[in-house]
Amino acid sequence: MSSSSGKVLFGFVFGAAVGVAAGLLFAPGAGEETRKKIKEKGKEYTDELSKQMSGKLDDLKEYVGGVAEETKSRVKKASKEVEEK
Q1: What Å distances lie between residue 70 and 1, 45, 59, 66, 75, CA to CA?
Q2: Going along 1-85, which residue ranges are E strands?
Q3: How far apart are CA 54 and CA 10, in angstroms?
Q4: CA separation (Å) from 35 to 17, 23, 30, 40?
Q5: Where in the chain are the domains?
Q6: Least enclosed by CB within 10 Å: which of 41, 58, 66, 84?
Q7: Using one digit for the tens of pLDDT, what is the confidence trace for 35-81?
């Protein structure tokens, strides 16, 4: 995933969380009940964001691992070529 789409995803999740919190704050209801709803929704969004970020980190680790292997391969090849000369 590109950096741009990651930013869009983060912006969407953050905007949704702010929207839900604002809606709950301005909705009629007891203060304790409203705080409980905000806490529950906050946990839901935090968990979802954590899952998505974990997936992105796994993708990044896989990519970096591939780049590292490719670099090692190129260094070995270049080293052999230098030794042969």
Answers
A1: 20, 37, 17, 6, 9
A2: none
A3: 13
A4: 14, 12, 9, 9
A5: 3-84
A6: 84
A7: 788 788 888 888 888 888 888 888 899 999 999 999 999 998 888 88
